[in-house]
Every structure is written in C-alpha cells, then in structure tokens.
Design goal:
It contains two helices and ten strands, in the order ββββββββββαα. It is of the alpha+beta class and 138 residues long. Strands 2-1-9-8-5 form a five-stranded mixed β-sheet, with no helix packed on it.
C-alpha cells in the first residue's frame, strides 16, 4: 500500500503522487513516514526531504512549513521545495552574498520586517547550498 503525498508551496504544487516512504526535517529531528503512519500534524524546518519510490530516491531542499499525516496520506505545505539536482550553486552563492550585504546595510532595531525577510532569504540560500554540496559529495 503506497503513501499518497502532496507537496505544496505558495507558488505551485510541487509533487502529487504515491511514494513508498518519505523522510523530512521535523523541528525535533528527522521524521520517517510510511503508509499507515499514525495521524500527526507538525512543523518542518529547513533541510532535506527524501522521497523513496520503487528503489529510487528524490532529494528536495525544503523550507519551513507544516506537515499533516493521516494514515495513507501526507500533505506538506512549505515556503520552498527545490530539487537538489536543479540547484545552481553559483547563483545561490550570489544571492546569499547580496542578502548578507543588504543585512549589513540595515540599522539594528529598525526595519524589522525587512530584517526578517533578509534572514529568511539567508536561511533558504544556506539550506540549498548545504544540501547540494552534501549530495554532490555522496
């Protein structure tokens, strides 16, 4: 019996289909989900999400989000989901550098919304670089 999985970002539905299992970065550590998993609603951190199906694995970098598991169905709502193989390291490094420069130009205690947005960008870039480099080394 497969696990029905849906991964959705604000921009698009990233994945909808059946998998054998999924591993995701929960806030309290990695969570493995198999078909007929106990019902669970939890939050997810930036990190690597692995989809296992028919002997192959798909690796995604995901952002913060919510996970709902209801037996044979899992739904992941996240702010980012990117296939590790499609990550352009040079472009991400440039984006990270721009974000750091922007952060340096902000005054402490002011523009808190802009600081939060820049910090989120730094987290997204850092997660993508870390997972891409880890997967390249494997």
């Amino acid at each position: 019996m497969p696990l029905n999985l849906e991964i959705v970002t604000p921009e698009a539905s990233i994945f909808r289909g059946s998998v054998d299992s999924v591993e995701l970065p929960g806030v309290q550590g990695e969570i493995g989900v198999l078909p007929m998993h106990a019902p669970l609603i939890t939050t997810m951190n930036y990190g690597e999400l692995r989809l296992h199906n028919a002997g192959s694995t798909t690796n995604l970098v995901v952002g913060e989000g919510l996970v709902e598991i209801t037996g044979a169905y899992a739904r992941i709502l996240t702010d980012m989901a990117v296939d590790v193989e499609s990550i352009d390291e040079a472009a991400i490094e440039q984006a990270l550098e721009r974000a750091k420069q922007t952060l340096d130009g902000l005054k402490p205690g002011e523009q808190q919304e802009e600081v939060a947005a820049v910090m989120a960008s730094i987290q997204r870039c850092t997660a993508q670089l870390h997972i891409r480099r880890k997967r390249r080394a494997v």
